[in-house]
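Workshop exercise sheet. Pairs work together: one partner reads the sequence aloud, the other fills in the structure field after running the prediction. Swap roles for the next sheet.
Pair: D.N. / O.F.
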Amino acid sequence: MLISENAHAKINLTLDILGKRPDGYHELRTVYQSLALCDTLRFLPSPDGSITLGCDVPGIPLSDDNLAIRAARMLGSHYGVTKGVHIELVKRIPMAAGLAGGSSDAAAALRGLVRFWQLPHEKDVLNALAARLGSDVPFCLAGGTAIGTGRGEQVTALPSCPHFYVVLSNPGFAVSTAEVYQAYRVKENKMHPDTDGLVRAIINTDQKGIMGRLANVLESATFMLYPAVSKLKERMAGEGASLMCGSGPTVFALFKNQQQAGRLVDSLQAEGAAAWLTETYAGDDKGVNTDV
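Structure field:
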């Protein structure tokens, strides 16, 4: 039997930075939301007992630099697994786009290998390994809608966000997350997202309330360092409620209407921009995929 796992992209409906932690990380409060757009990982036997990775997209690291490989090695080491695995990665989430593609691949590797290696499904173990792999990985392990605190790795599930069509676009270059965080000044920022209000809007299935509370404090730093991201958001904000994803460079816009969302994708692509249409994803994976 072929075992596969979908690895869903995520956006942040709010992203707030509360301060600097003693460990050097920033203290975050964010609302995560999964998207239907996803990579797919397929798990195959490895005759020589090695752990290897293949991908259909050039440029993806296939060694220990890849979070999916690191996840496999960490899980195997924890349980003393002697079997290997070959992971085939079908890549659809744009790379270095602020959509947690690598983190989601790592989470899917953990989920899939529990089944492939027939390991006990110990939620606490998986969450601990996920947190070691990266701040977004614990959310990607569960998906859906959730609040993230701490470095983002402390995840509390929320009711499913009401459905939106989501337009994604980016200017075609990578952003240095480290540079963005270094440029952000916590004390100088007086405006913070209304995260509590957004959570209430989600609970009340208030689409207008959600769209009116999208906020990301990192936009000021990214826009200063990369003005093209600011221009892209301005372009998309003219069509619908929009926000930068994470530290960038991708910007998303939410729509209730699929036709309106599709028209924005068409116009962005006609202008030479990379743009994709997807939708919010509730978390109970039924193999739904969105090709880009």
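Discussion prompt: The radius of gyration is 19 Å. What would you look at next?
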